[in-house]
Amino acid sequence: MNPDIRTILYASDLGEGCEAALAYAIGLADRLGARLQVLTVISDERERSLVDIDSHVPQQALDQYHDRRAVRTLAHIEAQVAGFYAARGGTAPRQPVTELIVHEGDDVPQAILDAADRGGADLVLMASRGKGVLAGLLFGSATQEVLRRTRKPLLLVPVGE
Asked: Which domains does the chain have, with CATH numbers?
């Protein structure tokens, strides 16, 4: 395992506390001189949409809806990054966010692992809300699954609810 961290992948669900985890990721990338990629995985609702509304809506309209959903998610991430820079008084870190990624899919842990591999991430960073072991066992957790399956270092940033 290479101890040099040149690329960090921050995987965000855009949930509560993710702004603090993003700030941590940006600060860490800046201190290490590393590239920072920000990934959000949104659920793939295309097939469910087809079942729910059957043939009442043209396929092109459904595709446009889903594409706009990804664009709105990307705009949300961009706003969080801009908010971080604004809070710093406009002083950008040496290593700003280098890539924003929105992936549509149902297997969130696999999408995170794939993005880490594709982007050459040396470290994966995720927020942890500390829902507890019982909740994790009952409901599962993308973070726990990534922890179980990754071969890359994983840094969990605790965030409050």
From this structure: 7-158 (3.40.50.620)
